Amino acid sequence: MYKNPPFRQKRHYFHSCSLGETKSIKPLIKENINLSVITNTGYEEAKKYNADVRYLPFEIFIPFWLKNCKNLIVIEAELWLMLFYIAHKRCNKTILVNARISDKSYPKYKKFKFFYSHLFAYIDTIFAQSEIDKQRLLSLGAKNVIVAGNIKSAVKYNVTYKYTPIKKTIVAASTHKGEEEIILSAYIPNTQLIIAPRHPERFDEVENLIKNFCKKHNLSYNTIEKGLKSDIILVDRMGELINIYSVADIVILGGSFVDNVGGHNPLEIAYFNKPLISGKYIFNQHTLFDMVQN
After folding, report:
1. Which residue, 103, 153, 269, 279, has most beta carbons within 10 Å?
2. Where residue 192 falls among pLDDT bands split at 50, 70, 90?
3. Is there a catalytic annotation at residue 21?
């Protein structure tokens, strides 16, 4: 925190969590903004924007760091009482954008309705992803809830590099711990498998998994830096998935084969009209999967 001075200018202040949430605000940015994020991947994305960016992983301390702003805009489900309480005093308005409450989370929220009812008193406007999200928010004490859809559907995707696959290509995208083993165990001979872990801190771990698998099955391996030249390829840098989706034959979307993530955004894959394989645990992405059904 001490390495992050308060924002220099009074602007609209956006606060997001991860890579997907940070990407989703791009269509909303029409002028210079202040933007804080709480993950490394979110921070790398945020640096591309017309914004004064802070990497603030310790959200509980942000209220004591916050100065005056035009409006506070928080993305999705970052419901921190003190942040909204302080911002309600120091900013013009407090706004929750792309708000959602998943099937899995809703029972937990209801147990603490007394707390969330208090929190929502400091949020002026909430833009919910769906009617279901709106009704859940209202039941918890939220006021002035508007169904605006999922802002991730407004993002445009641009290919920045053209890869050349050597054979039929299957992409395992945004994978989490435990999913790479599942996907490797289903490897189809004479295809090219590209694995892109969701979090950079897992690159070394996944690389070891792939190397051991390739050694056991006499397969070739390389990282994405060398292009699409081997049987199995590790994407060990951020920002390449859009380029890879554009040349994929099939995409397996991670975060959906383990029960503690809730899935990831399928619209990037649908944009390129690619067949999509998903697990059943997509409780955080229902509104987006509804858009690509069948």
Report:
1. 269
2. very high
3. yes
